[in-house]
Each structure stands twice: as structure tokens, then as C-alpha cells.
């Protein structure tokens, strides 16, 4: 029965994401479902532009939760990712409260007594009031839960990974002055990586590992259909077929889903009814981002169009 | 079912996927959620929780398909998986006891359980029996292909082969036709068991076998590698290159705590009147790696130069500033070729341009001094890969001295053993005086160490 529930729930995830315009493969849906069930972050890897970040957005929209995004870069540290003390506010408050402090401490005879009294205030200046929550802490403090997107984790330093470990496994952070802050509702965490560097095993172990590659032809057609509704069916088939041919070439940067969608939009704008050599050559720069790639692909355009058209007839 | 999962984790480890206990717990929890009914979902769930990279996913996917193509052990055999051989034997011996007392001339019903199973041709039961017997014989411990025989016989014994033989003897006397059928069935059973063992070997022994082979290959002299091993060797060198790249491609930030950078601290704290809330520390300055590699591709080192070039190719990926040169009788720059082309193409290209000639270190060094001497700076490491056999031509060691003076380090990697240096036309002793380091570099392991040391000096 549990098994029955599982497959229907996975389908529910699939259709839920589809309602947000994100066509998920079975694997992606399974990952999302499992991450909810066993409360684990998902580490998404794959080439640029296959919809890693989109996935987080779609989950947030589908579940009606807030999305908190932490963009990683080299040099990102605790103060920018987790929390920071509001120094200026602390300083300002001590200035304003100077007289008050003087009054309170005035009764004390010796320095020692004054110090004791000061201790009684506790750590007034190191309380929640003075903490500036950054994305990670914000995510833990959302009462209704949220989707926390840690984008391009591979761009950050190796030390930053270790900072994440506590959050990823226990959904809590430790602030020395305040103690441990636990999540009110465990957030759904999505980490994305372009595999620019290998992530540490400790981080990987805490996550479900999802690899999103280039989608299959049918899936990509569905994606285009949902994203660019104005495009005709024949053109959609042809262009997706063409892109799949292009991906067989040895290029610096293969066109990914986001390029497919851009290209579909361009073709609709140019009111193309079907692919021909002229229009493809004119718009190749939408698809390929390097001059060398365009040069490599240009001579093949005619054959690829023919191939795409042929597979269209039989497909 | 839990047992099955455990065996799958072992198989996964055999396939080279690291499965830690924590990960196996995660996988268990995931499987509990999705259940076993839908194989595709089960596969996805295991791939998600266990495999942590694309390579691992492929390996684990294959492993999954192989593993679950096996029949699953029957559920109602409690002893089968939990205990060892002994319990299985204990399970069988009481049933064989009364049967043997029954004496000769008994009808088929009096046969042992295995014989009955074979005669009734109950495929499912047989498959289940094989699976549970292989569990009892701990097939998952198989490591080497030479163990296949012993595991086959262990499994057959666990299934009650002894009892079957007795039955056969009895039957040949009483019912020859039935005995014939039983014998044919036994042969089929042997084959099935052999297949199971082979599959087990593929599942559980892969890692061990690969490790062993790689270990041997790493320590084998590059010059004497057999043709069929060349492809494997290349893969191994590529692995080494990848490891080097992972280790060194991203410079680690090294802050030197303890030395306050006063200027930066003051500037950073200007906002709150110079009260130093934030401190800035001095950073250690590190040289960026600059490497110039000279690679001998002449006939005398032809077998090794392939690997040298492969390694230089990988150096290009690790270090930004590498210039590489290839020479036999004269020297050309090959940086562009190595940077733009795939290893195989690049090597073929270089070999066709300067390869296989007779080596002339003197004139090659002259070429280098004339054109590229100015590229050497006090930060440069110069690597020379070659055997220093110059066909009795002028070695021009004076140029090497000037190279050494201009650069940070001069490293010479020689594929020949120390014993051969200085004999015949080897000019190694003369060159060695100007080198910072001279190393023998004949096996893949030595090659890895040498390059790792060179890159490490810049970290």
C-alpha cells in the first residue's frame, strides 16, 4: 500500500511541477518526493541551463512557499551567508544608553561591583535584536517552511561547504553568543552545482544526488510546448530534432534547454513556420555562444535540418 | 528483503561506488518510502541516495540491472541468508536421513528434495534454491576468477548434491530412464550454478580485480608495456591526470593568521571610527605555477614519450601557464597543439612533426636558447623528459646551465634506471650537475609522484 502511495505521490509531484510550467522527468520527480519524505537536501548537478535553478523555483511556486536564494561565489563567508552582528546598531545603542548605564552603575562602589552589575544585564548587546539574519538563518526562521536554494555551490570555497554541513544534516545553526537555532519547519533545500570543482564527500553524503542532463527529445518537446505555447507542432519537432543533432557535435558549449526555449521564442517572433537553412543560419547565435562553435556547426546546418525533418516523418 | 539490499550495497561497493553506512541507512529509508513494486522507481531511489557523481550513477545503474536480473531468494527460508553453510547442511541432513533408510527400489517420491525438484522441473523453485544456496556459500565473498570452481562446488553441495548422487546411484539400478532424465537435469543445474557464480564474480569481484590490475600496471615499466595493455595504461594515466587536476586546479586560500595587516584593518573599520571590530590578516604571497616542459620524442624513448605527452597534456589542464616543447633532432613548440586538441590527436600530430628521429640534445637546446630562452623567469620550473642519449653529439651542457640559472628549478625525468646513466651515449651525468632534481621516471607511479611534487611546490 505504501508502494501504491509512493508511485501516485510521485505522479502528483510530476503534475504539480508541470502546473508551474516545469516538466520534470521521472527521476526528478522521484528526487523531489524522496527529499520531502526523508527530509534530505537535493544536490543537483548538470550542465548550465538545464533547469537546475528553475526546479527550486517551481517547487516553491507549487507548494506556495517562499523561496530564499543564496548565490555562492568565491569569498562568500559566514557573515554574508549565515548571520552578522549589527555593529553600527550596537554602537549606536551603547552611545544612547550611556547615561542610563552610568546611572545604573553609579551605585557601585568599586570597579569590581560595577562589573558584577554589568554582568547582570546579561548579554543585552548580543541578543537576537542585533543579529542580522542572512539567507541561511532566514530560511530556518520561516514559520511555514521555505525552499532554500543554494545556487552554484561549486563556486564557493571549500571552507564554506563545512559551514553548510550543520544546516544540511540537522537544519540548525549554532551562533556562539545565542546558542543553537533550530528550524521551525525544516526547509526544502536545493543545492546546485556546475561541477566546476568536486564537492567534498561530507557534503555529498548529506544530500540526494540528482544529475539533470539534456532531456530526451519527447521531454524537450513537452518543455518547449509548456514554455512557448505559440509554436506550431511541426516546427517544435523540427527544432528539437535539430538541437539534438547539434548536441552530437563536439562543441565548447552545447546548447541546453534554456537555449532551446530562447530559440523557440525567436522562431515564433520571426514567424517561421518551418526550419530552413536561411533562418537557422541567421539565428544560430541564439543557440551557440562561441564564435568557434558557430563556425563548426554552420556547414552542417543543411544536413541536420534534413535529418530532423526525416525523423519527424517517421517519428 | 533487507538482506537483499545489504547484498546490493556490497555489490555496489564492488562496482566502485562508495557506500558508507550512513548512505545505506538513507537508501533504506528511501526504499521504505517507495517500496519494491516498481523497479524503475526503486532504481531511481537507489541511484539518488547512493551514487554521488555521474560516473557512480552509471556504474550503479549497471550494477542494479545485473543484480536484480538474478532471481530473488525464496522468502520462506529463514536459515538461508542468516547463517552459514552449516545451517544449510543441517537443514538438509535430517531429510536425507529417513530417505536413505527407505532402502532400494523406492518410487520417485522417496527421492531427496533436490532430485524431486529437478524432476518436477520447477524452474522457480530451482532458481530460488540456487540463490539461497549461493547465499549460504557466501558467494558475495568471491574475489578472483580462480575461485569460480570452489564456489560452484560449494553451492552445489549446499543444495544437496551428495544426496542427489546417492539417488542417482539408486536410480540407475532401479529405473534407468528416470536416472537418465535426472542426469540431464543435473548437467543443466551445473550450468545454471556456473552462470550464477560468474555473475557473482562480475558483481562482487570487480573492484578487487581492478585494483590488483591497476596496481601491477602502475608499477610496470612504461617502456615494456605490452600492446594490449596500452589502452589500459592510457586510462590509468588519465586517471592520474584527473587526480592531479582535482588536487591542484583550485588554489587553496591560505591565510596566515598572526600577522595583522594594519592598513587594511584600519580601512575596513573606518565606518565605526577606527575601532577595530573586523581584523584583516596578511596573506602569504604565492607564485603562480609557470612550467616549461621539454619532451624527448625520439626513437630511443618512443614507447615512453606517448605517456610523457599524455601527462604534459594533463599538465596543460592543471596549470594555466605551461609551455611545452617536443624535440628529437630539432625542437618545436607544441603548446598550441596540446591545448586545442584531444590527447590522441595531439600526440599523433606531434609525432608526425618531430617524432621518431634520432635525438640530438645539443641542437635541440640550441633551438630552445635561440627562440625561447627569454620566456624563462625566476618563477619558472623547467621539466625535461628524456633519456639524455644524444648519439655522441655535442651535448651543449652549457646551455642547460644557463637554463638552470634563469629558472626556479630544473627537473629532469629520465625513463632509464640510474644504472644506465653515463653508459654508452648517455650524457646524464653531465646534465645532472645543472639540474635541481633528477629522477628516474619509468613507471606510472613515479610519473605521478614527480609531477605532483612539481605542482606542489607552488601551493
Structure description:
- The complex is a heterodimer of chains A (315) and B (459).
- Chain A is an alpha/beta fold and 315 residues long.
- Chain A folds into 3 domains: 2-75 and 140-211, P-loop containing nucleotide triphosphate hydrolases (Rossmann fold), CATH 3.40.50.300; 83-130, no CATH class; 217-314.
- Helices cover 54% and strands 13% of the residues of chain A.
- In chain A, the strands form 3 sheets. Chain A has a 5-stranded parallel β-sheet, with helices on both faces. A two-stranded antiparallel sheet of chain A has the order 3-4. In chain A, strands 6-7 form a two-stranded antiparallel ribbon.
- In chain A, a hairpin with a 3-residue loop joins strand 6 and strand 7.
- The relative contact order of chain A is 0.12.
- By secondary structure, chain B is an alpha/beta fold.
- Chain B folds into 4 domains: 2-69; 78-207; 254-285, no CATH class; 290-456, von Willebrand factor, type A domain (Rossmann fold).
- Helices cover 59% and strands 9% of the residues of chain B.
- Chain B contains 21 helices and 8 strands.
- In chain B, the strands form 2 sheets. Chain B has a 6-stranded mixed β-sheet with strand order 5-4-3-6-7-8, sandwiched between helices.
- In chain B, helix 15 links the parallel strand 3 (290-296) and strand 4.
- The model of chain B is unreliable at 72-107 (pLDDT under 50).
- Chain A binds chain B through residues 2-4, 6-7, 10, 26-27, 30-31, 33-34, 37-38, 40, 45, 87-88, 91, 157-159, 197-198, 201, 204-205, 208-211, and chain B through 18, 20, 22-23, 26, 29-30, 32-38, 40-41, 44-45, 47-49, 51-54, 57, 246, 249-250, 252-253, 271-272, 275, 277.
Amino acid at each position: 500500500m505504501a508502494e501504491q502511495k509512493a508511485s501516485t505521490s510521485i505522479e502528483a509531484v510530476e503534475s504539480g511541477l508541470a502546473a508551474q510550467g516545469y516538466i520534470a522527468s521521472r527521476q526528478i520527480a522521484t528526487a523531489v518526493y524522496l527529499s520531502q519524505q526523508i527530509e534530505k537536501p537535493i544536490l543537483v548537478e548538470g550542465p548550465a541551463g538545464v533547469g537546475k535553478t528553475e526546479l527550486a523555483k517551481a517547487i516553491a511556486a507549487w507548494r506556495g512557499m517562499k523561496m530564499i536564494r543564496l548565490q555562492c561565489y568565491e569569498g562568500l563567508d559566514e557573515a554574508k551567508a549565515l548571520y552578522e552582528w549589527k555593529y553600527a546598531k550596537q554602537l549606536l545603542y551603547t552611545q544612547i544608553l550611556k547615561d542610563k548605564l552610568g546611572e545604573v552603575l553609579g551605585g557601585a562602589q568599586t570597579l569590581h561591583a560595577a562589573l558584577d552589575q554589568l554582568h547582570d544585564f546579561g548579554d543585552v548587546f548580543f541578543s537576537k535584536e542585533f543579529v542580522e539574519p542572512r539567507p541561511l538563518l532566514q530560511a530556518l526562521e520561516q514559520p511555514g517552511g521555505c525552499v532554500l536554494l543554494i545556487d552554484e555551490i561549486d563556486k564557493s570555497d571549500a571552507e564554506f561547504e563545512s559551514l553548510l554541513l550543520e544546516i544540511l544534516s540537522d537544519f540548525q545553526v549554532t551562533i556562539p553568543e545565542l546558542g543553537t537555532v533550530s528550524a521551525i519547519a525544516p526547509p526544502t533545500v536545493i543545492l546546485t552545482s556546475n561541477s566546476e570543482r568536486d564537492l567534498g564527500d561530507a557534503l555529498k553524503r548529506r544530500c540526494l544526488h540528482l544529475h539533470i542532463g539534456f532531456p530526451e527529445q519527447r521531454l524537450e518537446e513537452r518543455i518547449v510546448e509548456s514554455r512557448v505555447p505559440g509554436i506550431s507542432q511541426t516546427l517544435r519537432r523540427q527544432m528539437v530534432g535539430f538541437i539534438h543533432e547539434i548536441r552530437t557535435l563536439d562543441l565548447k558549449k552545447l546548447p541546453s534547454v534554456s537555449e532551446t526555449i530562447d530559440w523557440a521564442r525567436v522562431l515564433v517572433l520571426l514567424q517561421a513556420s518551418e526550419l530552413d537553412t536561411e533562418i537557422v543560419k541567421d539565428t544560430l547565435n541564439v543557440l551557440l555562444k562561441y564564435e568557434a562553435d558557430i563556425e563548426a556547426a554552420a556547414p552542417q546546418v543543411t544536413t541536420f535540418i534534413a535529418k530532423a525533418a526525416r525523423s519527424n516523418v517517421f517519428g | 528483503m533487507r538482506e537483499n539490499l545489504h547484498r546490493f550495497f556490497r555489490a555496489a561497493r564492488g562496482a566502485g561506488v562508495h557506500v558508507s553506512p550512513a548512505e545505506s541507512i538513507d537508501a533504506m529509508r528511501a526504499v521504505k518510502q517507495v517500496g519494491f513494486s516498481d523497479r524503475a522507481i526503486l532504481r531511481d531511489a537507489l541511484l539518488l541516495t547512493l551514487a554521488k557523481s555521474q560516473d557512480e550513477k552509471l556504474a550503479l545503474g549497471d550494477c542494479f540491472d545485473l543484480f536484480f536480473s538474478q532471481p530473488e531468494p525464496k522468502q520462506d527460508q529463514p536459515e538461508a541468508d542468516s547463517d552459514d553453510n552449516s545451517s544449510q547442511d543441517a537443514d538438509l541432513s535430517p531429510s536425507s536421513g529417513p530417505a536413505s533408510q527407505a532402502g532400494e527400489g523406492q518410487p520417485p517420491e522417496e527421492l531427496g528434495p533436490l532430485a524431486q525438484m529437478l524432476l518436477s522441473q520447477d524452474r522457480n523453485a530451482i532458481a530460488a534454491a540456487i540463490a539461497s544456496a549461493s547465499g549460504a556459500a557466501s558467494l558475495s565473498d568471491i574475489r578472483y576468477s580462480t575461485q569460480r570452481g570452489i564456489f560452484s562446488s560449494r553451492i552445489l553441495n549446499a543444495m544437496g548434491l551428495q544426496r542427489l548422487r546417492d539417488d542417482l546411484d539408486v536410480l540407475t539400478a532401479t529405473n534407468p530412464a528416470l536416472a537418465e532424465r535426472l542426469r540431464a537435469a543435473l548437467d543443466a543445474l551445473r550450468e545454471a550454478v556456473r552462470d550464477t557464480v560468474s555473475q557473482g564474480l562480475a558483481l562482487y569481484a570487480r573492484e578487487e580485480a581492478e585494483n590488483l590490475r591497476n596496481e601491477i600496471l602502475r608499477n610496470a615499466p612504461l617502456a615494456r608495456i605490452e600492446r594490449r595493455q596500452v589502452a589500459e595504461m592510457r586510462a590509468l594515466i588519465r586517471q592520474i591526470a584527473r587526480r592531479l587536476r582535482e588536487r591542484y586546479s583550485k588554489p587553496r586560500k591560505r591565510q596566515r593568521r598572526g600577522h595583522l595587516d594594519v592598513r587594511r584593518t584600519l580601512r575596513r573599520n573606518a565606518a565605526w571610527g577606527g575601532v577595530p571590530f573586523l581584523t584583516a590578516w596578511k596573506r602569504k604571497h604565492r607564485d603562480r605555477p609557470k612550467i616549461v616542459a621539454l619532451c624527448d620524442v625520439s626513437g630511443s624513448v618512443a614507447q615512453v614519450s606517448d605517456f610523457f605527452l599524455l601527462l604534459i597534456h594533463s599538465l596543460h589542464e592543471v596549470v594555466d601557464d605551461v609551455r611545452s616543447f617536443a624535440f628529437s633532432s630539432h625542437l618545436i613548440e607544441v603548446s598550441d597543439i596540446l591545448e586545442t586538441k584531444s590527447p590522441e590527436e595531439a600526440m599523433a600530430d606531434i609525432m608526425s612533426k618531430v617524432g621518431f628521429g634520432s635525438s640530438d640534445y645539443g641542437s635541440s637546446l640550441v633551438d630552445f636558447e635561440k627562440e625561447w630562452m627569454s620566456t624563462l623567469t625566476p618563477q619558472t620550473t623547467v621539466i625535461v623528459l628524456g633519456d639524455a642519449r644524444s648519439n655522441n653529439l655535442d651535448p651543449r651542457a652549457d646551455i642547460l646551465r644557463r637554463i638552470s640559472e634563469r629558472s626556479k628549478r630544473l627537473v629532469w625525468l629520465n625513463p632509464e634506471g640510474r644504472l644506465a646513466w653515463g653508459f654508452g651515449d648517455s650524457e646524464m651525468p653531465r646534465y645532472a650537475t645543472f639540474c635541481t632534481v633528477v629522477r628516474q621516471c619509468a613507471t606510472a607511479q613515479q610519473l605521478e609522484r614527480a609531477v605532483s611534487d612539481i605542482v606542489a611546490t607552488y601551493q
